[in-house]
Amino acid sequence: MARLAGRRSLFAAPVLLAVTFGMFAIAAASPFDPVRAYAGTAALGADRQTLDRLRTNLGVDRPFAERWWDWLTSALTGDLGQSSVMRQPVADVIGERLLWSTLLCTVAFAAAVLVGTLLGVLAARRQGGWFDRTVTSLAYTLSAAPVFWTALLAIWLFALRLDLLPAGGLTDTASEHVTPGQVASHLVLPAGVLAVSQLPWFTLYVRQGVADALAEDPVRGARARGLSEHTVLLGHALRSGLLPVLTLIGSRLPELITGALLVESVFSWPGIAAATVEAATAVDFPLLAALTALATVAVLAGNLLADLLYGLFDPRVKLSEM
Amino acid sequence: MTVLSVRGLSVRFLMPGGRRVAAVTDAHFDVAAGECLALIGESGCGKSVLVSALLGLLPANAQAAGEARLGDLDLLAADERTLARTVRGRRIGLIPQSPAAHLTPVRTIRSQLQEAVAQLTGVRGRAALRSAAEEAAARAAFPADHLDRHPHELSGGLAQRAATALALVGEAPLLLADEPTTGLDRDLVDHTVDELRRHVDTAGRALLVITHDLAAAERVADRVAVMYAGRIVELTDAEAFFGTPGPRHPYSRGLLQALPDRAFTPIPGMPPELGDLPDGCAFATRCDRAADTCATQPPMTATVACHHPYVPEDSHA
Amino acid sequence: MAETAVGPKWRSYGTRRRSTRTLRVRASVTLVLVTVLAVLLVPPLVQLDQQAVDLAAKLQPPSWAHPFGTDDVGRDLLLRCVYGLRVSLLVGVTAALTATVIGTAVGAAAGALGGWADRAVMRLVDTFSSVPHLLLGIFIVAMFRPGVWPVVVSVGLTHWLSTARIVRAEVLSLRSRPYIDAALSGGASRLRIAVRHLLPAVLPQAALAAVLMVPHAMWHESALSFLGLGLPSHLASLGNLIQNARGSLLAGQWWPTLYPGLFLIVPTLAIAGLAGAWRERINPRRRSELML
Amino acid sequence: MLELRAVTAGYDQRAPVVRDFSLTVEPGEAVGLLGPSGCGKSTLARVAALLHRPDSGTLLLDGEPVRHWRHRAPREQRTAFGVVFQQPRLAADPRLRLAHLIAEPLHATGRRSEVPDRVTELAATVGLTPDLLTRRPHEVSDGQLQRACLARALVLRPRWLICDEMTAMLDASTGAALVAAVETYRSTTGAGLLAVGHDRTLLNRWCGRTVHWEALQPPRAPEASQGPSVR
Amino acid sequence: SAPGDGSGGGGSADSVVIGVASEPDTLSPLLGYGKDGNSKIFDGLLARDADLKLRPALAKALPEVGDDGLTYTYTLRDGVEFSDGEPLTAADVVFTYETVLDERTNNTSRSELDAVKEVRADGADKVVFTLKYPYAPFAGRTVLPIVPEHVAGDQDPNTGSFNTEPIGTGPYVLAAWSKGEKLTFKANPRYWGGAPKVKTVTMAVVEDDDVRATRLRSGDLDGAILPPNLAAAHKNNSGEKSRGVRTYEARSYDFRTVTLPTGNEVTGDRAIRRALDAAVDREAMAAKILDGAGRPAYGPLPVDDPWFAKGIERPQDLDRAKAILDRAGWRAAADGVRTKNGLRAAFTLFYPSGDKVRQDHALAYASDARKAGIDVTAESATWEVIEPRMKDDAVLAGGGSTGDPDFGLYTLLHSSLAGNGFNNMGHYDNPAVDKALDTGRRSQDETTRRTAYDTLQRELVKDPGSTFLTHIDHVYVLADRWQGLTTQLEPHEHGFASGPWWNIEDWRPAQ
Ligand SMILES: Nc1ncnc2c1ncn2[C@@H]1O[C@H](COP(=O)(O)OP(=O)(O)OP(=O)(O)O)[C@@H](O)[C@H]1O
Ligand SMILES: Nc1ncnc2c1ncn2[C@@H]1O[C@H](COP(=O)(O)OP(=O)(O)OP(=O)(O)O)[C@@H](O)[C@H]1O
Ligand SMILES: [Mg+2]
Ligand SMILES: [Mg+2]
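A: This is the predicted complex of the input protein with magnesium ion.
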């Protein structure tokens, strides 16, 4: 286990290099214009000289490989560079926002995994029953629902109709201090929406895994032993059908980040994901590189976790072979 | 006192295209408290299906008919809830055939044992569970140092012992053992069989054991039931069956003759297709005593269902 | 053989489920057929301009003239839904199939080969999945002119990763089963083991991924379109229609949202229904329980 | 000739299951291997069939040392062995009908044309009725499945047969029938047989030579004891 | 906590929460923040009142103009302090302007100060601007916010912390900025104009229109800018929160137009241009696309503008359009699209993707054009795609600047700026218009300028280089807790500095 983790960490370095380099390359090849992005709406009234001057000042006409190398060398010394869209050092951008994104994603993901699993198990219990059919239809529907839609509906329902939860922001808009209580109540909707957007995958995979396992001999054995339905479902069927779910834990992370991208902007959540799209379309290399590096680390860690969990939950998968 | 009383139990499997497989047909037998009934018969004759039917574990394309009384409960009519909550494990224990396939592959034997102990007995607390599980393992001669293994890391015999241990946990009044001795060497077979016998003897429990190991059957059984093509064709005392005068049904005789320590010759012919059984005696095509009367179904007399059973005098013929 | 004179009373286990299942499968098949027919036949048969703006007929509720009502520049919603479904299905189904085929192939290959090849492939997968899909999508699409194929490519090329991982995990667990030993001993090559023994076992997982991917790809398309990178935002695609209708919903007009939403969800459910039925068919136990 | 020389094998380098084991099977010879449960017989059988790489020791196949195992073993070597596994439930792909299960090795080795004949012939040999051939593993009894597995092992006409507790789950008559089938096969083809089991009577009756596990392997150190704790 | 109580929704008059669509990139005027005034944290030398008239702010009075309009002299107000307590001096003003003009400063609107040759302090309280050429509307540029040299002077203006921690002389100070969520402003007790009555102003960043509308309805926000249809819906529904809200429709210079590039054979043809101008139904667009919150645009200047040339209003006239085309030799072909010498009257109209209003304008335009026999294909794209094609393909553009006609019109129409960045996108080239623009820019005389811009507008009707479609009203919804709120005539950019809160420091609670 430790060996696998160690080997993976070694692998992380080349992957990070490849990903950031790739990011620089793709961004450079994309038609996005960093100068236009920097100038924002003002660019639409700007004349050629101004744009040219900005181009020189921002140093965006240098070859991307060179800029990547510069970024890399200074990043290794701890200087992540200056974000041009945010007009701030990248380290500050990340420092200010990372916590909130992490909070949002963690809560949402945990909720998605737990609730998704629970629903999946309950649905699998009586395949074809009304509960199963409701849950699966709902799951497919939700998987078809764009995140911004669910977000809007959630605001409409919980903030407007029921007046239960605040509609956005990290704290009450008029409040000046960040208190845990406020953050908690403001977290419910965005995290809920993000969770709901991830839920269908977990629910449906768990349902499928559990339903298949329920038909197999081991469950028959467990039933024959007189174990309670509860234990049979959770301790045997779910445990046997857990592999895809564990995989999802690792491989849904990118989707989660993509979802966070949208949720954060809809709910004015001051997180880092919303900055990602901006960084991308603005070809803000330093910020983009730092964000992708972050995402890469998250994804690598997630996948490593998933792989480790395989070994833990399915002894037939040999960690030494991965 | 009868623990289990089976009357007219039949099981059919519905197959695509309207075909039916008559896995068990019209089985009648009782198992009394403190008694061990051995069920033997050719492979594929319906023994395991019979056991599954008793536990309500048949697949969805099966149909069952008849009656199987466990005390005042009709096992065939009982709903899944009753079976799951009060019958399985608690009133009827099962040692399944192919035990390795019936263990949850992703969990260690210890955790499965402890779980069973926790659910079926009053034992609570980590340490108590642990020792109870180890004790249960020991009863089935499952080595303690293998408790932390997963099913796929066990040899066939070890898996068999694990399954036996699991089935003994619930101290159920009726134990159904489907081939409890496969994969075990002679010493272990004896150990297991003795353990089962002790289990029966202690509290007036009953045992229905299915086995191909006739030596083991001889050692443990009070009575023997022989099944052929889904029907019980002979039901008699073990002593009479294994000793003198010996079995009366021609099939039973053939079976005994096939033992390696006897003639070691198989009964000629193919086993019948359960989807397409003849109207009369299913064994007739393979029977050297068959006659025209065999085209009708022989009724079950006191111990045997055959138109031309061996009578005791014949036994030395 | 003769049943006993007094016919025994059979207690059956799962027949009721079977009949409702038939009903569901039929409904799914019908819906999928209707969808396909509508998508193929309506545009050539109904020679109406789905782009025709009629400001005077803005946001009219459903009526005989416009069964689904009109949108906020007075275009007929029924017509636009059908056109939208056409585009979205093309995008959704092709992208989902691309993603699933790549994912399954890569995952099965990695898992079946194991060792060095597996590690290399999985690190590649890690690398790919490190970049948020939307970003990768944005860049891929941005390199081409707006249109259907860039979207398909971008969605297809970014969404095979989780399928690959799921399939590989399953394969890793399957490949030490005794029946693989038996196949080896029967002379099967790696490829044959992968294709004949491992792949069938992971197909349900792959199918589920594919079904989930269809609507996901459809909305991914609209997210890209929204950023100006997918289809032109006035072109009818279900994603665009729903996207455009948001404001109207808050202003109290439900029809521009409801109908495209139904057009998105109903085919998805139908496809899911078919996939579910197929899954039951390839699962040996379910199959015999349902007497298929 | 199939020769195991000082084979050490297991699942953990530190605690091998089979240690320093040597055994020779001549072509046409039937060797019974008798040993207590859990001692490592099945492991050894898998080593002999090239399905499990031993930690040390050599396996000589017709005098040639075997270098590769599992996937890497050349197909001719792998298919020289017909293996009947101890647990038929686990050794059968749950998705294949029995007919296909039996024919699978023919398909895998590209001998498709022989399929119908071989399957019918073998089904009769092992006593499988035609309707069973259309069923999938979970629709037949364990014994019926084991018969199909024997048919599968025979289908490529292997030079070596390895039967791991083949008759353990068969009734006496069926067991005797299968043993007879194997013996017929052996006598017509001159194949060698390694039959693993713990039924002394059966092995003595079946095999020309019966060897005891303890006799072939030095006694174990106490801490590595694999036997039951209760004897 | 329920959103109703903690937030501004409860209705105390000394705090307000406003939802805006975007967040400023920077709060440093050196990079362009608040360049048109109303920046709240800062003041310029001058400011604009409700009618957009210039009035003194940090300067004591309007500037003295000398040397034929080449020097502007401002005298600073006494006793003005920055919010950190330091006094304002002429050096701060000079520093501000010099930094903005510095080539190395990444200020995008530097060209607006193109006319400035030199800025110098004349004593502690006088600042003198010397211009390169007479520039009549120059005073309007000096609403540029002034930053303190003692704070910003030591920093790199592009990256320094002043960008996020600004200090100014304005009525408010920045209390907190949670990026992506909100900015909180507190009343500046040192404000030279007297401490504002509204003590806390929160600008909540809510990108999405629909979300903003919902949050406004839920009482989370006191005010917000909304698209007209959502504002209308809000008005109908506002009863549910049992509190008064008012809707403000601010007239604006914000026009939507279709550029008709000279380089394109079809759109370059004056007959086509005039036919299109006659064929479009501006009334319908204003009524339906803008839900009434806007008016037809007959030229770049809105009808409400004092500089608007009276009498150029013209209704849709399809017959005239057809007649013009017929006369010019564009003949209707079988598919209904006219051709001339084998050239189809067809062109592509780009609109920036994601902009619903422009999309609808583009579709309606295409639809109207089609009726006159001109085939316009609407296509969406990002600005990156549009930019290189602006000289050949039509673009649904928008724009409009307040203050002086020169600000918006010169860059929009002058032929010398054709294709220069986003200036004069369609390469419009009309000597009469150029001449009018130059006159308007140079002359100090009010009547001369008025005549020049009048001529220009009529010239644009004769040779429409682009089809002006609508001027958009900016619609705001705001809780009704203050009295006497007004809106200015607004420029193209809006939301943060414009809106009923343009003079929030002057708000007084309603009784
Ligand atoms: N699901 C099923 N569908 C159809 N037929 C089945 C099914 N399960 C079992 N059968 C058939 O029912 C018959 C009885 O099977 P069962 O497993 O009871 O045999 P058995 O007596 O236990 O044999 P063995 O000694 O080999 O275990 C067999 O012929 C088998 O083919
Ligand atoms: N995959 C595995 N991983 C780890 N240990 C294993 C594995 N398979 C078997 N073992 C262990 O190796 C030992 C020998 O197993 P093997 O199956 O060879 O025994 P066997 O002689 O065939 O016994 P039996 O007669 O009970 O089948 C046992 O202790 C078993 O627990
Ligand atoms: Mg059986
Ligand atoms: Mg074994």
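Residues 89-233 of chain C form a domain with the MetI-like fold fold (CATH 1.10.3720.10). Residues B 47-48, 97, 178; D 141-142 surround magnesium ion (ligand 3) (CB under 6 Å).
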